[in-house]
Design goal:
It contains 5 helices and 2 strands; from the N terminus they run ββααααα. It is mainly alpha-helical. The protein folds into 2 domains: about 30 residues, no CATH class; about 60 residues, no CATH class. It is elongated.
């Protein structure tokens, strides 16, 4: 065990080592925390993504929210290869879902 010396020269156990020893005596084990990256498909969003949305995200390696806000509808139509009316519907879907999520807080 690690011992620390105080100002008087006495050695004492650190709090963390005491904590660990007590937990070990009581047979309490904590799982190690790990952070797994969330893939685009698993990321939580307040709306249902269509297969075309998922395909577009995978193709451009960016979230759909970022993609459809990056220009005009007609620029995106050429860039993404998706019809302008579809992009317009996606924008409306995302906007209404975000608004609903916001107002549910109150």
């Amino acid at each position: 065990m690690r011992r620390e010396k105080n100002l008087n020269g006495d050695s004492r156990q650190s709090l963390s080592s005491i904590r660990k020893r007590i937990l070990k005596q009581r047979k309490i084990e904590f799982k190690k925390l790990s952070r797994k990256p969330i893939s685009i498909l698993d990321s939580p969003v307040p709306f249902k993504k269509t297969n075309l949305m998922r395909l577009t995200e995978m193709k451009f390696d960016r979230k759909i929210e970022q993609l459809i806000r990056s220009g005009t509808i007609y620029e995106l139509e050429k860039k993404l290869g998706v019809d302008a009316s579809t992009i317009s519907k996606w924008r409306k879907l995302i906007r209404t879902a975000r608004d609903a999520e916001f107002f549910e807080q109150f």
